[in-house]
Specification:
The chain is of the alpha+beta class. It has one domain. The chain is 23% helix and 32% strand. The protein is elongated, with a radius of gyration of 18 Å.
């Protein structure tokens, strides 16, 4: 039992050290639709929904705090549909559904809360 407490303590210390005090203050870029773009006509998708038409991928997009999974063209998603704020770059995480995120260190006032505090 004692070794389990010691292990828990060591893991906590290691986790805190890995985060680093400078990185803990890092902010996350905000994902937004580009001017004139909308997801209104894009088909909903997901595990219990129909598959996307050929040429489109099912991607979860978090906009203004709400996540939506839609069938979109992955090749043009980051260049034509969405953009990221604060100098971050749009990236697609491979999963099902895929996830679009803003990657990199966000600077300026157009950033969301600290990356390290998100679940």
């Amino acid at each position: 039992m004692r070794w389990m407490r010691m292990l828990g303590c060591c893991l906590t210390v290691m986790t805190l050290a890995a985060c680093g005090s400078d990185d803990a203050a890092g902010k996350q870029g905000r994902l937004t639709l580009r001017d004139g773009q909308s997801l209104d006509l894009a088909q909903e998708c997901g595990v219990d929904l129909p598959q996307c038409p050929q040429g489109l991928g099912c991607i979860a997009i978090k906009l203004e705090g709400k996540t939506q999974a839609r069938c979109v063209n992955e090749a043009t998603l980051c260049t034509e549909l969405v953009s990221c704020s604060g100098g971050t770059e749009c990236a697609i995480l491979t999963s099902y559904p895929g996830q679009v995120v803003c990657s990199g260190k966000c600077t300026g006032s157009d950033c969301d809360g600290t990356v390290s505090s998100e679940p």
